[in-house]
């Protein structure tokens, strides 16, 4: 179906609202990709809406809440025209703002949703994601609390980010999952083996992030030392196309598998300085680790689809 301007629409989840097939990720408007330009970012938001982009994506971890606060005036002016997606799970310790601790426990989820509602200046969040999985907390428990937020009218639809096919199915059995957000591009195709088929079976919308490889697939960057500013986190990528001048594929995560799954899980794209609340799940200094070495002559086995 086409809208009045340029892009087609799709249903968010099995029976959710229609959104433009192209959404707008707002993370770079506050941090990560070099100096932020507030005027240019506001103009981008308005121009995207003119072109029928109706799904806007943020997270409480983007700039430690700054990105949500930045979007609040835009949402106030266009609340009936757009859907807002935000995320929880990356807690920032008060004594160390550079760290992120993965938390999926019920008290934290309730604290996080209230904080996001205040920062965004909205009464309800259209799509609420679990940003990263804490493998110490059963996904069913996490989604159970998220489902309570739906019943309380604080959240409309639920999403998961960087989960396995088995985790998606387990979560969906507790409450319908509208969307799964994972990295998906020519650089990162792990989810095609099992997550994409599972999402198709369940009627879950796939929301790829970094589909253009953080700009590297556009040809805009060829040398990280020349093209990226010192505070651009892409400079820390040890095997980025900007530094190696060749396509690379990030390694699989070493995080634990879900109970009952036999397939090797897709890579969970980590966060700088990110650890679990009780047991370390990601503790690398770089957000995008180099590919793990493989003996010459061996082949990568495609993991089977989860049951």
Topology pattern, helix = H, strand = E: EEEHEHEEEHEHEHEHEHHE
* Strand content range: 15-25%
Radius of gyration: 19 Å
Overall mean pLDDT stands at: 77
Instruction: Choose one word for the global shape.
Output: globular
- Biggest beta-sheet profile: 7 strands, parallel
Low-pLDDT stretches are 238-266, 278-307
The number of helical runs is: 8
Tally of DSSP β-strands: 12
**Structural class, judged by helices and strands?**
alpha/beta
Q: Largest beta sheet: what is the strand line-up?
A: 3-4-5-8-9-10-11
Characteristics:
alpha/beta; seven-stranded parallel sheet; three-stranded mixed sheet
Description:
The protein is of the alpha/beta class and 307 residues long. The protein contains 8 helices and 12 strands. The strands form 3 sheets. It has a 7-stranded parallel β-sheet. The chain has a 3-stranded mixed β-sheet with strand order 6-7-12, with no helix packed on it. Helix 5 runs parallel beside helix 6 (195-202). Mean pLDDT is 77; it is low at 238-266 and 278-307.
